[in-house]
Structure formats: structure tokens, C-alpha cells
């Protein structure tokens, strides 16, 4: 492509051997994943999973869907911060966050094709037989619509890469409307994913069951989104550094500092709300049980601790601490979603009747994450995600920098 | 704690929640002050 950007990649690097450790490992994972895909769609769910009528939702729902949606929340948090709340100094983080969110949601839908018995009927609830009284219908509709919104939000990068200036300008003009629509849809379905479990008060352990589950899911998704932007930004900075231009690099640290501050506040609010949830249901006594230890670990180790680390990191302007806090938060969100949908679900059943995933289910989840990683790398190394496209550098007017900023920030970075 | 009526239960739990809300407000305020105490220093180490 004419506009392809490779700021510091030497020509020799393009000719490097394909047999790198990264390519070999991901190639093996994809190969195994394709074989398991063949098994799944020829032998059915029973051929590769330990799912049953008692446990119809397994790791593909717990990880691929619940964690996938929560960790893809960086898209709406970043675009809302930038375009709705006017925090333009985070503009450079929008494109990577939108790309991560778009791929995250796309892979959620991709993973659903493995999980539902008759995947060719996935469009039925939307177009053929909607069930508007069902929370699951709302989740499905919102995910369907938001995936389209994310695709449209991502298109300016692709259109710049393709050199379609006219269409790119049309899409850029839709940015604010798409952002608002995306925030509304995300608010709805992030919380509704928690509301799904309100129907099962006798199945979910009382420590995790609460009438405030939708609120918990929504607030924790904000922390997850902010932390994922930091986490993804750190990895990208390390492995895709040569694709970043001065504009991105100059704003990088400030983005992490600002998002760390936001995540600290959100996490501490989430922590206290969880305590209020315990008080309203009077479930304190469960804290002294085995499940209580798990709950305490989740709340103290993966909510309170990262909140404190974020705060210390922001106070000390120490980005290393902030990045570790982001890792802890991401792990904490995964643990929380696992607890709600798996570990603490059907908790009263004897161990023999509890669900444990087969190795093939785990392998398919790893395969799907790997596909996401490969797609991210493919797009980020070709399209203007971490750098400005040379033809669009002056596409938008410069804006006044914020009074409290330490250095001027790029305001004409992409869409 | 033993409850005999739903009213007893809600009186107890709502009372606890109100106390906790006060603690929450103070806790968040303290956390915010801790978080922003050094805001004037904008240099990144």
C-alpha cells in the first residue's frame, strides 16, 4: 500500500526468516486449533467438551465470552474519555484500544460459533425470532450492534491504509455519534452479562450472587478496559516499537499515568460497592469458608491491591508499578468472571457433578486468543494504528493543549 | 445474628449498609487525597 508506514524497520527485517520462535509457537497453536475445529464441527460438542445438561456453560462462556467482553471494554472507555469527556490528550490511545476491542468482540462472536449447538442459528434471535423479554436477547443484540459500531470506528485506519480518502473522511465525521452509540451499548450489555446470573440465585454462591451483579459487572468492566489499554500499550511498546511514531511515543507515558489514575478510582469504588453488596445480603459469615478465602483473594488481592498499586504508581509517577497494577487488574477480572460463571456456580453440587473443561476446550480458547494476537499484529504492522498516516497528518486542526498537561499532545492523530 | 422476620433482616442489613456507606464516602475521600496529593509534580520518573 502506498501509505504503508515503517518508520524504522530496516529492509533486511522484512526478509528475515519466517521460522521465528513466535511464528513456530503460534503456528503450532493454530494447527492444533484447526484440528479441534474440525472435530468440534464433525463430532459435535460432546466430541471435544465436558459440557452437559447440568453444566451447559463452560470455559468458552467463562473465558471467551465473559472475560473477552470485559477485557475489550478499553474501546468504549478510551473513546468516551477522548470524545465524550474531551480528554484529547488520550487521543493516541484510541486507535489501539478500538482495534483491541474490535478484535475482542469479533473473537467473542467467533468463539460463540464453537459454543452454541447450532451456530448457523446465531442470527435467529436478532432477525427471525427475537425474545425481547430475555436478558440474553439484550446481550446478543448489544454485542451484535456494538461489533458493527467497533468495525465502523476501526474503518478510518483501514481506509487510510487503502488510500480511500473520501470514505475515510466520511467515517471520521461519524466518530462522535459512533462513540456515543458505543458507550450506550456497552453500558447495557456489560451490565446485562452480570444480570444473566440473577436468574440463578440458588446456583451461584451467596458471596458472588447479588442483586447488584449488573452494577458490579459494569463498573469492573471500566477498570478492565482501562487496565487493558495499559497492558496492551505496554506489550505493543515492547514488541511493535518500530511501528510507533513520535506522536504516539510522546503521549504514551501520559496515557498510562492518566488511565492508571482512572483505574485506581474505579477500583476503589468497586471495592467498597462489593462490601456494601455483602452487607445488604448479610453474607459476611461465608467469608470464613473455603469460598470465602477465594472471595477474599479476589477482593483483596485483585481489587484492593491493584487500586493501591495504581495510586502509589500515580503518586510516584512510577509507570512500572502502574503496569504491574494493570496486570493484576486484568487477572482479577478474569478471576471474577471465572468465579461467577464457573468456580462458584453450581457450588452445591458434589464434586463429581461439577464441570471441569477438557484439554480440548482450553486449547480452543488458547487458539482463539492466538488468532486475535495474530490479527492484531497483522493490522498494527500495516495500518496506521500506532502512527499517523503521512497523507493524513494535517487532516484535523490542532486544538489547544490542556492547561495541566506537561507537553503538547498530538491532536491530529487519525480519526 | 438470627432473624425471625424479613423486617428484622432488612433493618439489620440496611443499617449495616448505611454505616458502610459512611465508611465508603470517607474511604474514597481519603483515597482521592492520597492519589492526588502530589499532582503539582508532573515529571515522570
Structure characterization notes:
The complex is a heterodimer of chains A (415) and B (45). Chain A is built from 15 helices and no strands. Chain A is an all-alpha fold and 415 residues long. In chain A, 45% of the residues are buried. Chain B is an all-alpha fold. Helix content of chain B is 69%, strand content 0%. Chain B has one helix and no strands. Chain B has one helix at 6-36. Chain B is rod-shaped. The interface between A and B is medium-sized, with 26 and 24 residues.
Weakly predicted, low-confidence segments of chain B: none
* Unreliable segments of 5+ consecutive residues of chain A: 1-8, 395-415
Strand residues, percent of chain A: under 5%
Q: Topology as H/E string of chain B?
A: H
* Largest interchain contact: A-B, 26 and 24 residues
* Helicity level of chain A: 55-70%
| H/I helix tally of chain A | 15
Average of the residue pLDDT scores of chain B:
87
Q: Mind describing the biggest β-sheet of chain B?
A: none
Following the backbone from N to C, one meets helices and strands of chain A in this order, namely HHHHHHHHHHHHHHH
Shape verdict of chain B: rod-shaped
Mean pLDDT of chain A: 90
What is Rg of chain B? Answer: 19 Å
Distance between the termini of chain A: 19 Å
Structural class call of chain A reads: mainly alpha
Apparent shape of chain A: globular
User: C-alpha Rg of chain A, in Å?
Assistant: 22 Å
Largest sheet of chain A: none
Strand and helix map with partners:
The complex is a heterodimer of chains A (415) and B (45).
Chain A: H1 11-14, H2 21-43, H3 45-48, H4 59-71, H5 74-84, H6 94-115, H7 124-128, H8 135-162, H9 165-173, H10 175-195, H11 213-239, H12 246-281, H13 290-316, H14 319-343, H15 359-380
Chain B: H1 6-36
